[in-house]
Specification:
This protein is mostly beta strands. It contains 3 helices and 46 strands. Helices cover 3% and strands 40% of the residues. The strands form 8 sheets. A 10-stranded parallel beta sheet has the order 8-13-16-20-24-27-30-33-36-38, with no helix packed on it. A 9-stranded parallel beta sheet has the order 7-12-15-18-22-26-29-32-35, with no helix packed on it. It has a 9-stranded parallel beta sheet with strand order 9-14-17-21-25-28-31-34-37.
Length: 568
């Protein structure tokens, strides 16, 4: 990679202690600088090769999200150089002198401070045991050594990485490596992890793998984890009976701020599992997907698997796919693979990819060959894109019925997939939906009620229309349909509310494929200027009496919108 001179990296004291952190769609990479020669930086191997296309170990379909792909837009940031220290709480490790340099926070006295350096990766390993209960223990300060080696962190999906300089051709993720975890259960039976606390971990919280059966992680808390909270199962689609994960449970746990360092990781991940129950967990403030069940995408190796009869029920998933972390193409609940008998029901999902600029933060995401899955009686609101997505024609026989949501979504893809009896485009949640949502999660909790939309019954006009993208499509309760004017000076879109009304908030949802940027929002009481791109949504708080709301470009361009809501 070039740029060492322009960025100043060529002049750093120890550039080979620093690493590049890169985000491309759903993948995250951390690779150490191995050398700087003039303007050119080279990176540690095999980290860099495993992060790039052409190895035939990730599969051609994945090459659009590597560090040498057209999707790559640059290094998100560099870390671990003293020249970058500029905020209290930051620190740097010098590998030559074996010292840490730290910028204290306000009020910290380092003569009295306690510093903890994690060393041990696995604090507890239960290997081949049965009928064991782990209860009331706090697990903290476990290390995760791989990212600090030349292996680095070549993220593939959900916190799993590609490791090793060589390996078999693998297009279905069969040989990816899970993160280290504070607690690991291998081949256990009737293992119960309950009322435990996982915090301040360099890797993951708990892993149940290698044929663990009839085991559970329940009523535990997970917070401030660098990777994901709970990993269940493995990546072999047709394991032997001894290595098959069956009838495991993850229930009544609280997960918040996991994936702090490795932002492609998920709260709860399950591979090829059968009879898995993920029930009444609370997941909040996560960088990527909340719950992920299934593996293998549409690769031939994974089209027949042991996946079946899994239940994702009664979970509360809020503020996930966090926009600031720049990880895309996921969902609050994400699935892969044919899973006969699998049900996603009674979950409350609120604010997934809310405030995004891209169309790929979903509520429930039945990705690729997800098949034979029932989605019912979920409450799904404030989603950056689709409340339910089943886009692939090879994801078949899925059903979405009896759900409540504030937007609509295209029909499910694939043979035999149907949407029925869903209440969509809501601007108020009915009592039944509120009851379902309030019961979801480890302890239940509050529900964000939707706000009445005065624009819904208004009349929309615009300065011009490109194709069939008419002005009324911004008032149809569907963030997946779009208006679009021609590109012209002073292009505008407007809604007439029918009478003067007092308004307190306007939501402007961008048409992300034809971005509206640098525009004025005009009411009868004045003008508010919005710099940069409109988001999904841009939310404006105001106190105005007006009959019309107009959105006008400042220069030459289009006004393109998926939704405009005006709240009283």
């Amino acid at each position: 990679m070039t740029g060492a001179v322009a960025t100043g990296i060529a002049e750093w004291q120890r550039p080979t202690d620093a690493e590049a952190v890169i985000r491309v769609r759903w993948r995250n990479y951390h690779c150490r600088i191995a050398a700087v020669n003039g303007d050119v930086m080279t990176f540690a191997q095999p980290c860099w090769t495993n992060s790039a296309s052409g190895t035939d170990r990730t599969g051609p379909a994945w090459d659009s999200t590597t560090v040498d792909s057209t999707r790559y837009s640059g290094v998100a940031f560099f870390e671990n150089a003293p020249e970058l220290l500029d905020r209290p709480g930051e620190f740097v490790w010098n590998s030559k002198d074996r010292t840490v340099t730290y910028l204290p926070r306000k009020g910290e006295n380092m003569r009295r401070a306690q510093a903890v350096t994690p060393h041990t990766e696995q604090l507890l390993v239960v290997d081949g045991a049965h009928d064991v209960t782990v209860s009331g223990i706090g697990f903290a300060y476990a290390a995760y050594r791989q990212p600090g080696t030349d292996e680095g962190y070549a993220g593939m999906q959900a916190g799993l990485t590609l490791t090793g300089a060589t390996g078999p051709v693998d297009h279905a993720g069969r040989f990816y490596t899970k993160p280290s975890a504070a607690v690991t259960v291998r081949g256990g039976q009737h293992i119960s992890i309950e009322n435990t606390r996982f915090s301040r971990l360099g890797g993951a919280g708990a892993i149940l793998e290698a044929g663990t059966k009839d085991s559970s992680v329940t009523r535990s808390s997970f917070t401030d984890l660098s990777s994901g909270a709970v990993y269940v199962g493995d990546t072999e689609p047709m394991p032997s009976a001894a290595l098959a994960g069956e009838r495991n449970t993850v229930a009544y746990n609280t997960i918040t701020r996991s994936g702090v360092e490795y932002t492609d990781s998920v709260g709860i991940w399950a591979g090829y599992e059968a009879g898995l129950t993920i029930d009444h967990n609370s997941l909040d403030h996560l960088p990527y997907s909340g719950i992920s069940v299934g593996w293998g995408w549409n690769q031939p190796e994974s089209q027949k698997s042991v996946l079946r009869d899994n239940k994702v029920t009664g979970n509360r998933i809020t503020d996930v796919m966090e926009v600031a972390q720049e990880q895309h193409d996921g969902g609050a609940i994400y699935t892969q693979g044919a899973q006969p008998g699998t049900v996603l029901s009674g979950n409350y999902i609120n604010r997934s990819a809310f405030g995004n600029t891209e169309r790929d933060g979903n509520g429930i995401y039945l990705d690729e060959q997800s098949s034979h899955i029932r989605v019912e009686r979920n409450v799904i609101t404030r989603i950056g894109y689709k409340w339910v997505s089943n886009w692939a024609d090879y994801g078949i026989e899925n059903t979405a019925r009896g759900n409540w949501t504030d937007t609509a979504a295209p029909a499910l893809g694939g043979r035999g997939s149907v949407m029925t009896d869903n209440l969509t485009g809501l601007d108020r949640l009915p009592a039944e939906a509120l009851a379902v949502a309030s019961r979801a999660g480890a302890h239940g909790g509050p529900v964000e009620q939707l706000r009445s939309d005065l624009a819904r019954t208004g009349t929309a006009t615009q300065s011009s229309t490109e194709g069939t993208a008419g002005a009324a499509l911004a008032l149809d309760g569907d963030t997946n349909t779009d208006t679009r004017t021609l590109s012209e000076a002073g292009a505008w879109w407007q809604v007439d509310l029918g009478a003067e009304r007092r308004i307190r908030q306007i939501e402007i949802w961008n048409n992300s494929s034809s971005t509206t940027a640098d525009f004025d929002v005009v009411t009868d009481d004045g003008t508010i200027h919005v710099s940069g791109k409109a988001l999904r949504p841009t939310v404006l708080d105001l106190d105005s009496r007006t009959r019309t709301v107009r959105i006008v470009t400042s220069g030459t361009g289009r006004v393109a919108l998926s939704q405009v809501l005006v709240h009283p």
